[in-house]
UniProtKB/TrEMBL annotation:
Keywords on record: Electron transport, Membrane, Mitochondrion, Mitochondrion inner membrane, NAD, Respiratory chain, Translocase, Transmembrane, Transmembrane helix, Transport, Ubiquinone
Its biological purpose: Core subunit of the mitochondrial membrane respiratory chain NADH dehydrogenase (Complex I) which catalyzes electron transfer from NADH through the respiratory chain, using ubiquinone as an electron acceptor. Essential for the catalytic activity and assembly of complex I. Core subunit of the mitochondrial membrane respiratory chain NADH dehydrogenase (Complex I) that is believed to belong to the minimal assembly required for catalysis. Complex I functions in the transfer of electrons from NADH to the respiratory chain. The immediate electron acceptor for the enzyme is believed to be ubiquinone.
PANTHER family per the UniProt record, alphabetical: NADH-UBIQUINONE OXIDOREDUCTASE CHAIN 2
Molecular functions (GO terms): NADH dehydrogenase (ubiquinone) activity
Family statement drawn from the similarity comment of this UniProt entry: Belongs to the complex I subunit 2 family.
Name of this protein: NADH-ubiquinone oxidoreductase chain 2
Residue spans crossing the bilayer: 57-77, 83-106, 144-163, 194-212, 233-252, 264-285, 306-333
One cellular component (GO) term of this entry: mitochondrial inner membrane
Membrane topology: Multi-pass membrane protein
Source organism of the structure: Cherax destructor (Common yabby crayfish)
Protein EC: 7.1.1.2
Reactions listed under catalytic activity: a ubiquinone + NADH + 5 H(+)(in) = a ubiquinol + NAD(+) + 4 H(+)(out)
Class in the EC hierarchy, top level: translocase
């Protein structure tokens, strides 16, 4: 995605739509913000030269339009059937998020995007629906639907990425799994899920930027990429951090949410989430022996010449994913 002037304007409009949805005081204003966000993101992922991106844009538009239609229809029923309306709105927002069991569109759309577009889909596009869901978590029916969606997302995100060889699909199923932790954190307090989302956005962005710099989209690309062993080690450790392996940065938000769930007596849900996290770590760990031990023959040209940001990414990715090693455990317990 080349950062031309009109695409920068669409990014600014996308961010303004997200801010409008978060700060709105009515469902109509929130719907306007979601629509502004949607119509700004479609031009960013549409390409006449790439049929996969055009197909991904069409799928994304249809799903998001369906979710927006359900929201505006349900908001008109808040005075007649408030409980049903709140439940329908929460399900529509879960559809927009790509949380299970409404997840099937998310990996397919991710597969048709490049890494810069995938970063926006994994981070900014999830911000407005998650804030709107957090406003609804006080309702009993919404509370039950979020709990079921969190358990389904944990299982689907763990099992869906086992046999995948596409890095974009692996990150998409990892995002679905992380969504389960954030949905449960919403039911406890707002601070927990905000901390989780902020750290998840940082880590996933750093991983996607590294894959962008090396132009890696599948497992063989990591093996055959013309990079140094240090770069491969950084990429593997970044995936470990995304999977939540201690003592990397990705473990910090899971630790915080785990302590909150124990305090709130969410023991069964915590067991499901921890077991699913172990499965997600499996399809990250299985990449390590092959990508690190096998190296291709080095050629004189390097991809770094086409992507000059690569030398800068090494310390940036390391700082984002490894600073958990430097945080005292006393601060986390507090």
């Amino acid at each position: 995605m080349s950062f031309s002037l009109y695409k920068i304007s669409f990014v600014l409009t996308l961010i303004s739509g997200t801010v409008l949805s978060i700060s709105s005081s009515s469902w109509f204003a929130a719907w306007i913000g979601l629509e502004l966000n949607l119509m700004s993101f479609i031009p960013l992922i549409t390409s006449k030269k790439n049929q996969l991106q055009a197909e991904a844009a069409l799928k994304y538009f249809l799903i998001q339009a369906l979710g927006s239609a359900i929201i505006i229809l349900s908001s008109t029923l808040t005075l007649l059937q408030p409980m049903f309306a709140l439940l329908a709105i929460s399900l529509a927002l879960l559809l927009k998020l790509g949380a299970a069991p409404f997840h099937s569109w998310f990996p397919q759309v991710m597969e048709g995007l490049d890494w810069s577009q995938a970063i926006i889909l994994m981070t900014i596009q999830k911000l407005a629906p998650m804030f709107l869901i957090s406003y609804l978590s006080v309702s009993f029916y919404t509370h039950a639907s979020l709990s079921l969606a969190a358990i389904c997302s944990a299982v689907v995100g763990a099992l869906g990425g086992i046999n995948q060889t596409s890095l974009r699909k692996i990150l998409s199923y990892s995002s679905i799994n992380h969504m389960s932790w954030m949905l449960i954190a919403m039911l406890i307090n707002e601070t927990s899920w905000m901390i989780y989302f902020f750290l998840y956005a940082l880590i996933s962005t750093s991983v996607a930027l590294y894959f962008l710099s090396t132009q890696s989209y599948f497992f063989p690309h990591l093996i055959n990429s013309n990079t140094t062993p240090l770069s491969k080690i950084i990429s593997v450790l970044s995936l470990y951090s995304l999977g939540g392996m201690p003592p990397f940065s990705g473990f910090i938000p899971k630790w915080i949410v785990t302590q909150e769930m124990i305090t709130a007596s969410f023991f069964f849900t915590l067991l499901v989430l921890l077991l699913s996290s172990l499965v997600t770590l499996y399809f990250y760990i299985r990449l390590t022996p092959v990508s690190v031990s096998i190296s291709n023959s080095q050629s004189k040209w390097s991809l770094a010449s086409f992507y000059p940001v690569t030398p800068i990414l090494h310390p940036v990715v390391s700082a984002m994913n490894l600073f958990g090693l430097l945080i005292p455990s006393v601060l986390l317990i507090i």
